[in-house]
Structure formats: structure tokens, C-alpha cells
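DATA SHEET
Item: assembly model
Revision: 1
Owner: S.N.
Input lines:
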Amino acid sequence: MIIEHPLLGPRDASEFTYMGDAALIHRPDWTATTAVQDFADYGYLRDNPAGRHRELWFHEGGDRSWLVVTRDTTTHAITSVELARDVARREGRSR
Amino acid sequence: MTQSNRLDGGLINRDRPINFTFDDIPYQGFKGDTLASALLANNVRLMGRSFKYHRPRGPLTASSEEPNAIVELRDGARKEPNTRATTAELFEGLTAKSQNRWPSLAFDMMAINDRFSSFLAAGFYYKTFMWPAAFWEKLYEPIIRRAAGLGSAALEPDPDSYDKGFLHCDFLITGAGPTGLMAALTAGRAGAQVILADEDSLVGGRLNCETITVNDQAGSDWVRAVQAELADMPNVRIMTRTTVIGAFDHGIYGALERVSDHLPVPANGKPRQILWRIYSKRSLLAAGAIERPIAFEQNDRPGIMLASALRAYANRWAATPAQQIAIFTNNDDGYRSAADLQAKGVSVAAVIDTRPDAQTSAEWEVLAGATIVNTSGRRGLTGIQVKLADGSVRHIKCGAVGVSGGWNPNVHLASHQRGRPEWHAEIAAFGPGQNLPQGMSVAGAAAGHLSTYGALKSGVEGATAVLADLGKAATAPELPQAEDAPVKITPFWHVAGAKRAWLDQQNDVTAKDVKLAHQENFVSVEHLKRYTTLGMATDQGKTSNMGGLAIMSELAGKPIPQVGTTIFRPPYTPTAIGAFAGRSRDADFRPVRKTPSHTWAEEQNAVFVEVGMWLRAQWFPRTGETHWRQSVDREVLQTRKSVGICDVTTLGKIDVQGADAATFLNKIYCNPFAKVPVGKVRYGLMLREDGIAMDDGTAARLAEDHFVVTTTTANAVGVYRHMEFVRQCLFPDLDVQLISTTEAWAQYSVAGPNARALLKKVVDPEHDISNEAFPYMACGEVSVGQVRSRLFRISFSGEMAYEIAVPTRYGDALIRRLVEAGKEFDAVVYGTEALGVMRIEKGHAAGNELNGTTSALNLGMGRMVNKKKDSIGSTLSKRDGMNGPDALKLVGLKPVDPSKPVPAGAHLMTKGSPVDAAHDQGYVTSACYSPNLGHHIALAFLRSGDSRLGEVIRLVSPLTGQDHDVEVVSAHFIDPEGDRLRV
Amino acid sequence: MSDLHKKWSATDVNNNYISVIVTLKESDSMRYSGLRVIKEALTGHKGWSPAWRDATPKPEYDIIVIGGGGHGLATAYYLAKIYGQRRVAVLEKGWIGGGNVGRNTTIIRSNYMLDGNEPFYEFSLKLWEGLEQDLNYNAMVSQRGILNLIHSDAQRDAFVRRGNAMMLNGADADLMTTQQIKKKYPFLNTTDARFPIKGGLAQHRGGTVRHDAVAWGYARAADQQGVDIIQNCEVTGFIMENGTCCGVETTRGTIRATKVASCVAGSSGRVMEMAGLRLPIESHVLQAFVSEGLKPLLPGVITFGAGHFYCSQSDKGGLVFGGDIDGYNSYAQRGNLPVVEDVCEGGMAIFPMLGRIRLLRMWGGIMDMSMDGSPIIDRTSIDGLYFNGGWCYGGFKATPASGYAYAHLLARDEPHPTATAYRFDRFNRGLMIDEKGMGNQPNLH
């Protein structure tokens, strides 16, 4: 696979390390009364779609940025690649 | 032996005779021959035995789809079993042996299987050999295993080397036949970066095997002209002997270049083969088509081959399997073989055409509406029986039959991403479907354009479309003149009523086996394949799948496309495992990381051990020490008595900088880090989000906004990745930056009562490292010989200790200076074994305890998990299952009988309870002999261990034969109060 | 079958090379046996009947098993055979045995370490040991042994712990020296290996099984017990009434059932999504490989401990080998080149004679990678809906016990004694069964 790195251009997927669902960005609030259940759901449950999947890849053999890659799990076609940090900020991790 | 079946002409070089042997008999062929063509020219048709029935076999094809003529090529360590004689290029001194026969190819005892074939029908083994159960491994299976298999592998290491390479192009063209050549010409002239790859040693594809003309030139002459033009284009790379083996994601192709397989041995310094990874923007599959046979009674005798192979041998290699041949066809293409062979002086006994309306001919006899109903000749064809249209049977003498059942587009690569081929009724075959790999298009015969002109035109059109896609202007080359014969075919798959008509010749799958599969409900194509083994041989069913499918379609009463089709899997042809491995084998399997003291350690005759990619000194034997324990005990005792030096460079080091560095580490570690003073080191325990310990180490605060974090050697990479995840994904606005500095700093531990005295001689005198100025857990920047250094007062051994770091390039100088300075203290240098002994004596957890299943609570550090802050893993640590009253706790163990070992991996049982899994109380994680205590000691996880100190329990290790009592003690065997650390 | 008592003489119907006289009893008519094979061979194989009936779906069953793979078919078989369930159907969207039971590397073993796993896998191995006689189907269960190589002291410690756990659970284990191993595998690289071999943990009762035959054997035996096996019947939805699952919608119509049992490893996410459930599972692709056929070379199953490579040799002669998953979520049933290279590098690291042996075919299967690397056999939060999945790439060896335990759960509504730990709520409770210690990252298990 080839991942179109937003800063570095096309890079072979073997330079990257995969983590999983980009929903892992959405770490729950530890102060909530339901925190243990929230963290268990966050840590263990996955949508695991057959189709469009937003997922985290780490450019281990490169610039060490975490990326959010949108990829189809049935064809492996990649439709977008963003810096995870930008995604995290956009999706409310700024505080 | 003379080349009695050598014809005139051909693309062989008669000035270059080549000597070779087959089954130890010497023969001669010519440069340009394959092993198969040279053997045929020498009147050898019998080249192999089939898999199951050990039937005599000769080549079916002249190409890589060959199921029959497979041999053991070369010998000794270079032996290559299962090599297709049809693609093995002849070289001087080539040796080949037939395989899957005993004692000889001509007289194969295992051919007895053929006599019993009706007992060995598809799937017979699923129905028997079940009694008694124990006999399977002892009796039945060994017999089956010995009888099965094909060639035998060399048992010595492969002496040749393999390389890997990476290529990038706009346009990859697979197949350099007429289609591929025209596509390359079109794209090359338009300036695109083109790779034209072909498995053959020659470009040209079928044009090398036909008498067809292009622009009134011989096809092969036209090919040479185009090749010359392409060769002059710097943007076109022609790769012959290069098989595109697989279509992978995003336009990436695997290709195998056989650099040296046509040579006796690889030239000096050259690899045998190269595995190329080709990154293409677009690709064109121009892999042509593969002729398919018709199944008929006893259709597997040597001499019976595809009609296209028959004329390929005659036209390209000037060889014929026999002087009298017949043709069996259901389409017009078969007649080309009759014409070409006859033109070369071979006698055509008859053309048997299944079509009742076949035209008669003045050149040869045409038997219209006829079929072959039997054949004769034990080790090679001698004659056939033909059932004529009127029902009468005629015997015809011939030594070869060219069979043509039509052509299947070669869609192998098109289905590598599980795209299904589609039925093309006009050619009665499957062609490429809609779901092609990204960026791929298909042209020429592979797309069903079976005429020469159609292929040439399709190549131009295919390339033009690709160029438009790539935004490049193209001027289509003028199309050459060539034949444009329409496909005239009446599908005919098998001669009805045959008792034994082979479909898959290598695996011995007959039409009857398909019938049996149908009868037993193995109707789906995949069931058919798996039950009968159809298409599972080394040729992967390239010539056989269609026939099986057609027969199943008849039996099921459904049209072929409704029965389905199988898809192909990579690689296109079997590919050497060595090529996939490249240079990463044996000692070079993975790179070696060496510490800065490595050269010095080698000088000291250190024994090294693999720690991940690192090589670390395990111990340093001295003269007279004959057992490793002597060295290790000495290193431990001397360190605790005076001082020891150890290279700890391999520990991961991560620089953490920024205004929010402390806030960040407070998230990363479960224990508090917000208020670590500058100039202090704190031990930190890092949890995974699931509350399990990930790693431990230290963080030294060198400045308000600067920490240096250490990790264990094993987890250095993973911890860094994790910290970047937390930084970038979870807390993207923290002002903090990370960088791994593991390789940037050489770091040594100096431990023992004389550590400070030693270091004082090394560290520049302006730095006060006294206990008062630089107490336990202090850190700071110092210098050594004016070289910038870092000093940490931390201890893994339990002794008063420092770790000193200098830039890596000074690492060698520093170890030499430390050792020199240590002489007056009788300092030792110690390796990983002594390091391990001392940390067990001290009760420090390491990799064996941080095994990915243990929590802070298990490690006896439950109270470190700060409940008042949010850190990674703190919330999920609270789950009840991780906090049960009988949770495992880290304890120390010592043997009740001091002479006994306490082996790691042993399990623990309460005294008096049964010894079984249900009563398991825990396990030993780390163990060693303690030279300070004079007996073995161990760390262990024990249920409720912290409340069982003093209890005598039973240690069992049935695997290693131990069963004795041990006493539960504190994990801190040495200096439990930590006084030594602080002096 | 009136002619079954007739005496068959080979010379009558075949040829002169053999002369066999066989008498078959009436009761043998459905059974497979050596005598039956001979009898059929002499009579043109006309007597073989379908291995299983192609059933048409009935409007209602007691229990519907979704998924005609190894586990689903085994579940149906044990439901009927052991638990007396008579109205059971297996629904398969394609052809039976088309999932991972038809695309794995055929290894069976019970060399697990943790309490939650080892009793279950040992139960499974014991079922394998009697399977062929039970099913009357030769699945070529071959206890040729499995050997895990050791390359470091820490690895030895972990393997000793594991071997002891196996033995304490009644399984067999054997710590072998490098010399003993070398005797069995003389071409093993013990001279210049990057990670020298320091011994190995063997389970001699481990081995291989002809994978497709497992599906067919269970299908045939289940069919004979009255189970309806329905191919080309894809589940398209669940029928929910008052929060209870009462059946399924399929491409072949509505089928109602008292209990619906999902058993579709690889597709678990897709199927359970129709019930609105999220799972502690990701789907990943695992590639596997087979070489060209060779004369016997490898006596048993062997795994490399410092890289990703394991290998055995099939009875047909092909080396069957594999390594690690590709590592990214995928339903594509195919992988990529870097992993192929990684696996072959592992092979060449320990067996440098593999270089000239050719890889014949590579393929991919979809693995239900769970969050702790261990499976789930449990009720779901929806009444009437049950789940079996999360087998990671250990599902094949588990087939008999998985079917047995799932049948037990379905019939009795309580977990089988060997499968009590395989619950959904273990993640909420912190009772993970994590053999490899990799935590909640499925691609690391």
C-alpha cells in the first residue's frame, strides 16, 4: 500500500505502524461517573466496518507523525490522509 | 544421440551447441533451446511422472503453464525440484533428473497406483484409513507422504544470493507480445516512463512461435525492429526473464527477474534472482492467452500436447515430438499447427475436427465431426483411435497430437485482488471482469482480442487510454498489417464416454473425478477444486480449470458462467522463497545494533547475547574461568564489594522538551510527575490504557522544560510511539516535543561502594559529585575531558551508583577511561547476566515481570497509581477483576534446601493441595544464583503473595523435573531499606 | 442396496491385477470404510451418495447457526449428537467450509499458557484425537508434533512456564535441546543464525489436520443427524420482537428460530452490526502460503521464535507456512508483499535450504482479532442471540471444542466448563485472557 503523507507525499505503507480505529482519539472524560464503563467501551469496542474506515497510522520509519487515514477495508483504497493532530484538534481534543 | 527430431529454421543458434544430461544420459542441444525443446529434438518425449498415478508424461505446453514436464534441475545444493523443462533455458553442462519415480523414469514401481486407480478416486482417502486410529501416523500417512510430493529438495543451504529492488514507473506493461510491444511503443514515444516486462528470454510472445507476418516481415523480425526502437528510448525499460508475479495494492507489482537461471552458476557478485517491487501509476495486462486442451480417453500420453505448443516447438525451436502427427481441434486455430508442421516436413496424418461442418483440405485429411476415443503407447504416443462422424472407429499411427480446445485469456493477474473474470461467449472463455486491481487495464489476447491485428490494435488503444489518464499527449503509431482472423470455435470440452480423460494432468484429475464430486455434492467450484485437487498443482490449473468447470456445468445443467469460476492467487508462477527473502537470511536475517563499547568488549573477549536487534556483552570471561557462572559471580561480587561498570546504552532514551513537559509526563506515568524538581530523577511506571504495566524507567528533569526519559531496551520503540500518540492524538495542544536519543548517547552504569571515587577521577573536577551535592536520584549536566556529559544518580543494582552519558562518538573513549580509572579499585566490567543477578537480588522488576499481563498492583506498586490525576491507564486499573483479593503479587522465593534451584517458569502450589492447574498459585518469573547469598533466589507472582511472606510453598516444574519446597520472602533480597543507595 | 450381500470379485469387473472378495453388510451402506472404497471402486463408484443434503430452508427451527464454517458445522453436529437438538439449521451465505476452515495452515495444538485457555484447547485436542472415528470421516488428523523454537533466556523462561501450565492441565509438553531438535531437523541453521536456536518447546500430540475435510466431515455427520445445511443463504437481518431475537431474514426468505447463533468468524462485525452490536473485535487479513509439492522433508510443525515464520508439510508434499497478520483492518482476503517477504525471511533465517523451493500460492483469510487475543463464546445482550467469534488466528485448532462448547451454551444456556472465561464482560471487568500480553490492540495478538 501507499500512503499519501500530507507533508511528505507518497510513502510505502511498510514505513508505518498501524494502530487501529481513529476513534481512539476520543478518549473519555476520566471524571465522569461512568468513567470505567466509558473507558472500557473506548478501549475495547470497535465499529470494524466493512468499507470506509478511519484509522491511525504512525510514520515510524519517517517523520513520526500520527496520521488519520481513511481507507476502504474491502478494497484497501485510500481516500484521505490527514495529520492526526489536526484531526484531534478539529474533533475537540483542544483544551 | 543425434537430434533426430530437429527441424529447419527456428530461433536457435546452431553455431552454439550445448551439452547437457537428462537422467545421466548426455544430449546435445543449441543455444536458444529450452530443456524441453532440446529433449524433443533428441526424440525424448517422456520427461516426468504424474503426481498420483505416476503416469508417464511429456510436455503439454511450451511455456510456463506446463503441468507435466517438470524435473529436478541442477544438483547438490543448487538442486531445483519441480522445474519446468519448458522454460528452463539450456546452458552448457545442464543436468536434469526426472522426479517422482522409482527406480527410473521408464520403469516406475509407483506406477502400480495407476493399476489401482479406481481405488484412488477423488477423495478416497477421506473414506478410509481410519482404523485403528493410531495407524494413521505410523502406517498410512508415511506411505501416502512418500508416494506423494514431487521433486526432492536440496538439504544444504542455498549457495546463491538474491536481491531486492524497487522501481517506479508511469506505466507497467506485463507481457511483451504484439500487444505489449505496441503499447510500449505508443507510451514510449509519448514520453511516459515505461516498464515492459516479460517472463520469456525473448520479447515477442507468440510472434516468436508463429509463421504469421507483420507488415510483410516475419513476426520475429518485426519484433526485433520494435525492440530496437524501444531499447533506444531512455524512458523505456525492457525487462526480459522477468515474471510479474502479483498485483498488490495501489499499483504495486511484484516481479521476479531471473538474472542467472540461464547460466551454470551466477556470475561473480551477481544474484541468482531479483525480486522487484514495481510502483506503477497505471498498468496494462498484456499477458496473452493460454490454449486449453480437450479431454479424451488416455489423453495424457507423452506426445499429446497443445496444438500451439506443437507449432511453437517447430517454429521457434525447430523441434518436433514426432515425425508423424495429428491435430485434434474444435476451432480454426488448430489448423495453423497442421500447416506449420507440414511446412517443416512433418507429416500430418489427419486433422480431427469436432465440428461436423469443418472444411476439407487439399493439404491433409480433415475428419469432420470426429473425436479421439483412445490412444496407445505406454511411454509415448504410438497411435490414436478416432471415432468418425459415421460412428466408425479408425486407427491412426502418429507420435504426437496437437490438441486445441480454444484459447483462454490469461487473466491471472487481473484477479489477484479477487476480481472475478467474466464469460465472453464469442470466444467461449472467461475474460477479465470489472473489478480489476487499481490502475490496471487489460489488452490484447488477455482481453479476448485473439487475432494478431486485434492484439496490435488493442495494445495501441490500451496505451492511448492510459496516456490520456496520465495527462500525456499521445500520437498513436501506425498499425502494422497483420492477420485478423475471426475466432471460429464451437465449444467442445471432452469426449463423452471416456473412462479416463485427464483434466489436471499433474494431479491426475480426470473427468470421472468431477462426476464423482458432483455425485457427492461437491458442486460449488471451490468444493470441486478442493475435493478433487483440480487446479492445485504447480501449474495452478492454467490449462485444466476450464475443462473441469465445463464438465461440472454439464452435470449441473447450468451454463458455465452460472457454475462460476475460480480466481487466481499470486504468484503467477511458482517463485523461489529465497527471492522473497533476499539478503535477509542466516546471520543477515536482521541488522545488528552494537553498543559504543562493542569494540572494546570484543577486545576483552566478551561473550555477546542478542537483545532484540542489539548485541550486548553477557559476561567478560577472564583467564582460568571455565564456566559462565564463575565470570558472572565474580562480576557481581566485585561490583558489590568495590565497583563495576556496565554499558547501559541500549536503554531507550527520549528527550521531552517544552513548557508542558511535566504536564505531559504526568499523563504518561501513573505516578505523579508534575512537581519533580529540576536536577532530580524520578522512577516512573507507565501503564497501557488498559491498566497493565507497559514499561518502567526514569525521568530526569534537567530543566523546567526538559526531561530525559529512559525506557527498557525491549520497549524503547513502543514507548516512544505511545508517547507520540498521547502527544499528537490525545493532547494535541500541549507544548511539548519528543525525540528519541537512544543512539545519540552512550551511557554507562558505574555501581558499587567505590563508584563515586572512580567517577571523581573521570568527571572534570569543577563538578561536585559528592553525596551532599549530588545525592541519590540527583541528575545534572557535567563534563568529562570537557566533553558535555550527563550524570544520573540512579541504581538498578541496588548499590550506590551513577549512570554517565556522553555523546555516542565518545562512548568508546569513555569506557576505556572508566576502566583505566577503575584499576586502583579493582573495578570489574559486568555484562547483562551480572546486571540481571543484581536486579533480582534487589527485587527490581524487568521484562520477565513486565510481561504485558501484570498491573501496578501485581508488581507491588498499586499505591503508585495516583487516583487524583488522569494518567493513561489509571481509570481501567480500577476494574474489579484486576483488584481481587487473591491477585498475584510480586514476591521473592528462596529454596528451603539451599542446594536446590528455583527455576523460572516453575509453578507454585500451596503445600498439601493437589498439584494441578485448578490449584495453581502463581509462577516464577526470574531466577538466578545469588553469589552474595550463596543460594538460588527468584522473583515470582503469587496469589495474595504480599500476605504470605514466610510461608513455605511447593514449587513444581514437571517440564524440567523439579518439585520441592521454597519459602516466600520479600523480593528485596539485598539491602531492603536501600541504605547502600544513599551513601 | 440389495446387491450389498453379493460377493464381489475384482476379476469380474476390473482387471487381473487384484482379486478381492468382499462382503458388505446392510448397515454399512452409509458408512465410509476401506471395504466400501474397494466395493465402490469395483462398481464404478455408483453407490456414493451426497456427503450432505442440500436442504431447503424450513420456516422455523429451534436453533439456527449462522455460518457454515468449521465452527458452525461442528456446533450443529454436537447440538444434534450430544445435546439431542433435532431442529437445527446451518445457514451459509456461500459454500460450506469457504471461510477460514478452508484457508488456514491446518495446525492443531493445545500449547497455551493461561487458565482461561489451556483446558479448552486441551479439550479440543482430545476431541481431535477421536474425531475421525466419531465422524466416520478421515480428516487426516496427524499428530506429528509441534515445536516452538527458543532463542533467548527470557523466551525459555516463558516457555517453561507455558509447558508447565500445559502439563498441569493434563496436556503433554517437552523441553527439547538444540541437539535433539537438530536430529529431527538436520537442515536447521545452527551455525550462523542471527538469533541462535537455544532449544524448543514441543507438544508431540500437536500436529496437522486436512482442513477442508473437517468442514466436510462435520457437515456429513451433522446431516446424518438431521441438521439442515443450507448453502447460498445469506443472512440479511435479524427478526427482533420485544427486544428478543426470533429469527433471521435471509436471501432465501424469513426463517424463525428460538435461538440464533452467530458463528461467522471473519464476518462477525458485519453480521452483528445488523443486530446493532459493537464487538471487541477487529477484522484483519492473515496471509498463508504453500510451496510446490516435495518429497517428505519436515517431520512436524515448527515455529521460529525470533521472527514470523511457521511451517509444516502437507501429506501432498507442499510446505504450508505463514507468519504474522498484515496488521491493518481488512475484509479483502488478500494481503501485501511486505508480509510475504517478512515470512520468507523468517524461513530463510532458520532453514537456509528453503531458498530454491518455490512458493506456489499465497492467500488471505479474514481473522476476527479480539482485544485480548482470546475468543468469545457467549450470549449477547439481546435475548435469543448468541455469539461465537474472536478466534484471532487460532480458530482452526479450536473447531471441535468451539462447536462443542457453543452447542453446550445454546442447549443449556450456561457455558461449557472449559469455556467459562470466554465472556463478553471480561473486558469490562478486567479479566482479559492475554496470552501474548499485548493489551487491547488486536493486530498485536
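QC remark: The CA atoms of residues 950 and 968 of chain B lie 5 Å apart.
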